[in-house]
Amino acid sequence: MKIFGHPWIESEQFYVVKTEEEIKKTPSNSILKIESFDVELLKYCQKNGLPYMVVVSNIKEALFANTFHAKYMRGSKNLAKELMPIAQNYLFDTQIIATISSEAEIEEMAKAGVDGVWFK
User: Fold this and answer.
1) Nearest by Cα to 96 from 60, 50, 65
2) Which of 1, 73, 99, 107 would bridge with 65, disulfide CB 3.0–4.6 Å?
């Protein structure tokens, strides 16, 4: 399980982007963070082979995120748990990250088989 945003763990550097211009200004080898589902940005990242995380709010967005080769998709705990069997059935390459607010939730997400957690 990957753990992002916990003070004990050093994690990858993410850069919030909203436009192609902002993407062009990020350091090379950075991971982009797309906080609102934008198909054009996802397609741009896919076309250019850029690693990114996208925040998803439903199963349809998750299916598209995987299709557009997102490295990570992040959603609520409930959505992450709902997505895991779908991801396993369709052999997603995209890892599913659940948004949590406390350490106590890590175990719950691990038991649900979620790929990782993101502390608010």
Assistant:
1) 65
2) 73
